Amino acid sequence: MHLGSLLGIFAYMNFTKEMRRVRSMDLRHLLFTLALICANDSLSAGDDLLQWPQISKCRSPEMETFSCFWTAGNFYNLTVPRTLQLLYKKSNEEDWKECPDYMTSGQNSCYFNASYTSVWTPYCVQLASKNEVYDKKCFSVDEIVLPDPPVNLNWTLLNTSQTGIHGDIQVRWDPPPTADVRKGWITLEYELQYKEVNETKWKELKPRLSTVVPLYSLKTARDYEIRIRSRQRTSEKFGEFSEILYVSFSQIGIGCDHCTEEVEFPWFLVVVFGVCGLAVTVISIMLSKQPRLKMLIFPPVPVPKIKGIDPDLLKKGKLDEVNSILACHDNYKTQLYIDDLWVEFIELDIEDPDEKNRASDTDRLLSEDHLKSHSSLGVKDDDSGRASCCEPDIPETDFSASDTCDATSDSDQFKKAAEKEEDLLCLDRQDNDESLPSLANTDLQRQHRSTQSENSHLWAPFGDSVESPRPSVHTQISSQNSLASTDFYAQVSDITPAGRVVLSPGQKSKLGRAQHEGCTEPNFTMDNTYFCEADVKKCIAVTSHEENEPRVQEQVYNEDGYFTTESLTTTVANFGASTAAAPSSEMPVADYTSIHIIQSPQGLVLNATALPVPDKEFNASCGYVSTDQLNKIMP
Amino acid sequence: MALARAVGRAGERAGSGRAGAHPDIPRPDIPRPDAAALSAGAAAALALLWLLVCAPGDAGCHPLTVADLFDRVIRHSGRIHSLSTALYAELEKHFPPRDNELGRPARKCHTSGMLTPNGKEYAQKIPREELTHVILKLLQAWKEPLSHFNQHIEHHQELPDDSLSKAKQISNMVHELKTGVEKVTEKMQSMGIISNSLNGMASSEDTGLSISNEANMMSDSDFIHCFRRDSNKVQSYLKILKCRIMPENSC
User: Fold this and answer.
1) Domain CATH code at residue B211
2) Interface contact B121-A114, CB threshold 8 A
3) What pLDDT, in 10s, does the model give residues A456-481?
4) Which keywords does the record carry (chain B) (predicted)?
5) Helix or strand (DSSP H, E) at B60
């Protein structure tokens, strides 16, 4: 055994890298140890190693007496034979006493009878010769109880099955005679084990207190073996097994040797064939040309699809193209508009008084018919910067190149669409409440109407003050019109439930005008308590004689639809660039929400640049201000 | 009465069934009886015990016999012994003995000084009153140290909650067992089985208090080892006492 282990170690060492370096030295060591062991083996004829005498176990069968057993060891042969003694000591004693009885329990044992036994007293025993102590053990008697095996095992037949193939028996036995279970001094548990005669593994029953156990459903054609062992109730170790009891049904005449065994259900075959059949069916369905059947069994999994958008574009990440498609795709946009009930439009006033008759942007948006009919959307001023509404995310450079959108679709259609959308989205402020077309959503219409009216109210006071800067505004506006009316700033107008940010681009030229207009318009009612600060700020900016900033319009909606964060990043970059390129005459607008930090890809931190407004209480971001706040701001 | 017995037996079966569910392979763990089942059974049994011990004059109330009462307290003490064995095993696992267990000198328990019969013969020889007195003395001696131990063991972070709950259970059950044995004693005295000479109980109260100081010196696992031994003593004495008083009932 040791040879083998050493060889194993040796082999292992051969394989380790480090050992290879000192291989030669270790080899020598190993060889030396091997030699030693071989020598030792030859010396001790057959025994492995030197063994000292040791106490093997101490046992009490009934908690009234106990015995200790030891092994003598193997150095008797080598040295002068010594007599081994077992000394014991109770816990409250000082002297070691010798074993009272070396005989009763057999050789190399010591028997303590009842007079020497104190049950709950700690004992210590030690195996010693004259001078040497070889082994020592301490215990108390109640801990070393290992009962004797039960006796008088026998069995009786309870009944047999109808076919006579199975039978029930009852096994009973007596507790070990030494254990005084009658007086209750010791309580025993019994564990029964049984097996067929030619089996190898014993079946166990749960330990139980009773001395009678039924065994059910034994095969009458077979013979069984039964054995029982016992233990003290609160301990874990079992005693020895009893003698084996043989159960043979043929002895009592009911053995059914010629009975055929019940055919067990061929579970294995059933499972195998079932699986094969199922596989064949599935394969045949998959391969079949019948689309209906295929659809029935394997319904197609719906993949995310955007109408009109080739999913390949999305996959390839060509967002520009996708956005352009989205921007200029008529049907898509209208669909989106209608779905979004959060849309709040605040219309900006436009110079042209004719436009007052137009339907509000909201109305236009909400009514699909209206969207399609260009007539209602009236052509605004040419310098409205409509084109800017189409593709806010397209880089400014591209945009500036042409006055129209770089749409991939038909240019005419696009122009129309652009006009439409920009009018819708760029939210020309029209304070006409009368000529509203029939709308799908009357609530929204009302709301927006009220929004308009209150805005007009809001800006009523400024009507006079704004008069004078008007001409300059106009000129500026006209100058601006020639600029590529890119939207340099995007305002977060809405956050969709899906977690996307809806940006609405602003229109500088339009805003300037619109702001001007808006502030002079007195037709607002204060029904709606909330309106965007931007509106308020517009007026304030005007009063404080700032230059025309590009205004953010309350564009709740962007014709480009929902931006993904990727598009936003590109947008931001573009906007950032465009901001730098913005003419110095324009001040940074407070109500544009500039994208401050991009925590891509999860989100953006939007930060509105602070507008130098007289009232510092104003929130920098373009949030909603309540009426009270507004009243505070407005003088 | 039958219901009470059934409850008691159910509790016992639950305890013993679990205790014996392990194959006989040398394992460091001692089979743990289902503590929940034990305590539930114990609580139910003892609750019913005191409910149904009614005055002789009550109609519709079946007073328990001494045999039933004895059965209950014996079962209760058996559960205590099982719990303490399990707790000892857990403590040994968490605080392994520093030196070789076999060579360890005998633990000094605070009840070592008590004079208790240490064999079956002695237990059978001494008078019943004295045996009863010894049982009560033992239970009294452990009442306070166990509560101290409970408070002390709660501060042990590394012990599992299972051990802490066992310790608490043991403490409660010992108290219940003492109450139970007192009731049995009263019943026996009322029936004239034993004489009313248990006047030494007062002195045992005092000894219990003085002994508890020694108990605090021991380590946790030694403490539980001592208790385990004493719970075995109590159980054995109760069994012997029962068979002495009623030799015909399965004795």
Assistant:
1) 1.20.1250.10
2) yes
3) 444 444 444 444 444 444 444 444 44
4) Hormone, Secreted
5) none
